[in-house]
Amino acid sequence: MAHLAPSGKWDARYLGPVPHDASYYAKCMLGGALACGITHAGITPLDVTKCNMQVNPAKYKGLLPGLRTIVAEEGSKGLWKGFGPTFVGYSLQGMFKYGLYEPFKDLYMNVAGEEATNKYKGAIWLAASASAEFFADIALCPLEMTKVKIQTSQPGTFPVPMFDALREMSKLKAETRYPLGSLVPLWSRQIPYTMAKFFFFEYIVTLFYRHVFTAPKDTYGKTTQLGVTFASGYLAGVVCALVSHPADSLVSLMGKPANRGKSLGQIASETGIVALATKGLGTRVIMIGTLTGFQWWIYDSFKTAMGMGTTGGK
Q1: What whole-number distance in Å separates Cα of residue 86 and Cα of residue 276?
Q2: Cβ distance 51 to 252 under 8 Å?
Q3: How far apart are CA 308 and CA 301, in angstroms?
Q4: Rounded distance, CA 91 to CA 29, Å?
Q5: Where are the beta strands (DSSP E) in the chain?
Q6: pLDDT tens, per residue, the chain with 314 residues
């Protein structure tokens, strides 16, 4: 496996089974869009319940009671509120999150050079994932704000269909700070989350190939490699949920009418750090573990189908 560019210099873009050219990065963007769009939209019922538990814990006391309350009040269609903006928003986010991670990783590795790359792999994973997420959240923000508003508004007070909801959000700009009002809390939730997600994924994959599957990675079949991908993604997801939960609670609470016009600091001090860190956490650990496992699995399955190999573990 040549690690040298045609010029004869060491080049991160030539470390994998195929060269990382524009076509490779474009496929990564498509794989990322599929991975995040499908998984986030698929767990909309859990997300609706979690948002309501964070915003109104007295009424939505847990995952199952919360699901039951929503179905009793709004029917089963209430569980799928926000499906449209979730699918579109997270497809865009995934496109940039995964699609930009790869070129940023290659760029930072080439800036660092071969020796520093081998020594400071973790720092490169963290820098590349943070850079990618910075842009991914700008794409996600207007749709995430709309999704939270749809999911936490009282039935009949806010439109549920996506385009009607987006129009309504534009009209309520002064009140909701749409389209980028939630960008700072979103960055504070998603950037640490994504850094943890990519760092621990890459790290756990490396551990698997160092201690469990000790033969060279390319000697294992696709099923084994994708199994390692799923397990690493799931474990990384659990760590992510713990890291980012307080900020996730804040994003949900910002959508609550009672918190209109309050600063993030004020909402945080009124809610209390323990409540921010724990309300809805069990649900989110299950949700994010499964979600992250499947995201990496879909992403790597797509990469494998395109002949690009799975991520990590070199």
Answers
A1: 23
A2: yes
A3: 10
A4: 10
A5: none
A6: 447 777 788 999 999 889 999 999 999 999 999 999 999 999 999 889 988 888 888 899 888 999 999 999 999 999 999 999 999 999 999 999 999 999 999 999 999 999 999 999 999 999 999 999 999 999 999 999 999 999 989 889 999 999 999 999 999 888 888 999 999 989 988 898 899 999 999 999 999 999 999 999 989 999 999 999 999 999 999 988 887 888 888 877 877 778 877 888 888 888 888 888 888 888 888 878 888 999 999 999 999 999 999 999 86
Domain 17-306 fold is Mitochondrial carrier fold (1.50.40)
Distance CA 165, CA 147 (A): 9
In sequence order, the 6+-apart residues with CB closer than 8 A to the CB of 169 are 142, 145, 146, 149, 176, 178, 179
* Beta-ladder partners of 144: none
Q: Is the dihedral of CA 175, 152, 148, 193 positive or negative?
A: positive
d(CA 133, CA 8): 33
Q: Cα–Cα distances in Å, from 82 out to 125, 163, 191, 256?
A: 32, 11, 23, 16
What is the helix (H) or strand (E) element at residue 122, kind and residue range? helix 121-152
